[in-house]
Automatic annotation (TrEMBL):
InterPro entries: Poly_Biosynth_Transport, Polysacc_synth. It is found in: Cell membrane. One of its GO terms (cellular component) is plasma membrane. It holds the Pfam family Polysacc_synt. It comes from Limosilactobacillus fermentum (strain NBRC 3956 / LMG 18251). The keyword Transmembrane helix applies. It comes from the Bacteria. Keywords: Cell membrane, Membrane, Transmembrane, Transmembrane helix. It is a multi-pass membrane protein. This is Flippase. The chain crosses the membrane at residues 15-37, 95-114, 126-145, 310-329, 406-427, 439-460, 466-489.
Length: 502
């Protein structure tokens, strides 16, 4: 009981720090982006979005090995097996040294062929800017092992504080430089220096908490650990590939088949979605280490109960966010960057539905990570990647749907692959139970979501005043949550569990 209480306390602390700092960072990112658009223009905004996608493609070199190794840390950290922790960390350090070298080599090669990824004239200084971009990526791997240990040991709040301090400082300086008329290159130089400083600072803090990280002597990893790592790494390679195609090719497809301006328009919406995704995932990531810690007890019935409580809680949270997006997304874009950057209503709705789909998956993904179920999903991500890319190109190239096309492509890959394959892995190999209850809950949640969206559509068409819309949204949200609190036992238990531990 005491261990369960400790897990709840650790999850809550990580979640509170993470969400507060992520929210403040998100607010600042909107300020920075607003000034970025006004000072540098939509073309550089599109270029920045393209760089992010190219960088995610390059992240395939990491192969997901870091995640596989970090998930192996849950049990030795729980049992305080220092020697095994040291051996795993030593392996991770050696791996990331090679990753830094590979990123620099691959990035240098991609710089030469950068014009091939852009439809039209390449902006001034784009090649040098991309060099700064991939060097920043390489810098993030400098001391990433320190962050890995802290998060696996349920101390993610320390990482959250560190990231916030340096990112906030970075954003303040970037705003000042943009206001003074400095260019995109200076903007990226500031980002690079902040990344290096953040990693060095976190390194000092983590070595103070875990003095053994400074030790160079390590024991040979047990054969059982090596075998488990080998399977997990193979599984993560395909998962990494699928994840990269799923999240990193949209802007690339738009840039190659349409233009950078469209990429910039889409980037405004994805900035909002990514910000909200980061906030929600901060909550989920805060409990992933605790799920891993719970898994060491091998109490599958207890884990199953925890799964459904978290699944309902996550679903209801993202429903509330989705409904708010339906009411206010376009109005926010108009106030933030201007009405000319608004997308069509059908495209906006598709983006909202995709957000809901992606976030509904996150609890199952957290249980996969906590149980190191990477080998079991080795084929899933390959099918997911193929379906997503094929439908995206089909909709953009041949049906000329532009942004709506890439969004529909991702929705199709979720519907055809992820909705059944990911939970199958969790329930078969992690929780060791049937999926009947899962499908009942899944269809109930999606039915509630669709019916609610239809209802909100009619309400929104009748209410046009912004202030009245806010009041209507608040009233409907309160009613919605109270009804589900009364009707859904898992949601009610989760809320009482959280409140009871405050």
């Amino acid at each position: 009981m005491e261990q369960g209480s400790t897990r709840v306390k650790a999850s809550k602390k990580n979640a509170i720090y993470g969400v507060i700092f992520q929210f403040l960072t998100l607010v600042m990112s909107f300020v920075v982006r607003s000034i970025f658009i006004r000072k540098l223009g939509n073309e550089y905004l599109g270029l920045d979005g393209l760089f992010k996608n190219l960088l995610n493609l390059m992240s395939f070199t990491e192969l997901g090995i870091g995640v596989a190794i970090s998930s192996s840390l849950y049990e030795p950290l729980a049992t305080k097996n220092t020697e095994l922790i040291k051996s795993l960390i030593h392996l991770l350090k050696s791996f990331y040294r090679w990753i830094i070298i590979i990123i620099i080599i691959v990035g240098s090669g991609m710089t030469i062929y950068l014009p091939n990824f852009i439809h039209g004239q390449i902006p001034t200084g784009a090649r040098f800017a991309f060099c700064l971009y991939f060097l920043n990526s390489a810098a993030t791997y400098m001391l990433v092992v320190n962050r890995t240990v802290l998060i696996a040991d349920q101390r993610g709040y320390i990482n959250s504080i560190n990231q916030f301090v340096f990112l906030f400082g970075q954003q303040i300086i970037q705003i000042i430089m943009l206001m003074l008329g400095f260019n995109y290159i200076i903007y990226l130089v500031i980002q690079l220096f902040a990344t290096v400083a953040s990693n060095i600072s976190l390194g000092f803090r983590s070595r103070k908490i875990y003095p053994y990280l400074k030790e160079h002597s390590t024991q040979k990893l047990p054969h059982s650990v090596i075998r488990s790592l080998r399977e997990n790494v193979i599984g993560m390679i395909s998962a990494k590939f699928g994840g990269i195609v799923l999240t990193s090719t949209d802007n690339l497809v738009l840039s190659m088949f349409v233009n950078l301006g469209v990429v910039g328009n889409y980037a405004n919406y994805t900035t909002v979605i990514n910000g909200l995704t980061t906030l929600v995932n901060t909550l989920i990531q805060a409990i992933t280490a605790s799920i891993g810690n719970l898994g060491t007890e091998r109490d599958f019935k207890k884990e199953e109960k925890t799964f459904f409580q978290l699944y309902w809680g996550n679903a209801i949270l993202i429903m509330n966010i989705s409904f708010g997006l339906y009411f206010f997304f376009d109005r926010f874009i108009s106030l933030w960057v201007g009405s000319k950057y608004e997308l069509s209503e059908i495209t906006t709705v598709a983006i909202i539905i995709l957000f809901f789909q992606n976030q509904l998956r996150q609890i199952a993904i957290s249980f996969q990570i906590a149980h190191s179920l990477f080998w079991q999903q080795r084929y899933k991500s390959l099918f997911e990647a193929g379906v997503n890319l094929a439908f995206s190109i089909l909709f953009v190239r041949f049906f000329h749907l532009e942004i709506l096309g890439v969004v529909l492509g991702t929705i199709m890959s979720n519907l055809l692959i992820n909705t059944w394959w990911e939970p199958l892995i969790v329930f078969k190999s992690g929780l060791h139970c049937g999926m009947k209850r899962y499908w009942e809950v899944f269809f109930a949640i999606n039915g509630i979501y669709v019916l609610s969206l239809i209802g909100i559509h009619f309400i929104k068409s009748l209410v046009h005043n912004f202030l009245i819309q806010i009041v209507v949204y608040i009233v409907l949200s309160l009613m919605f949550n109270l009804i589900l609190m009364a009707a859904v036992a898992d949601f009610r238990k989760l809320v009482f569990r959280i409140i009871g531990k405050i």
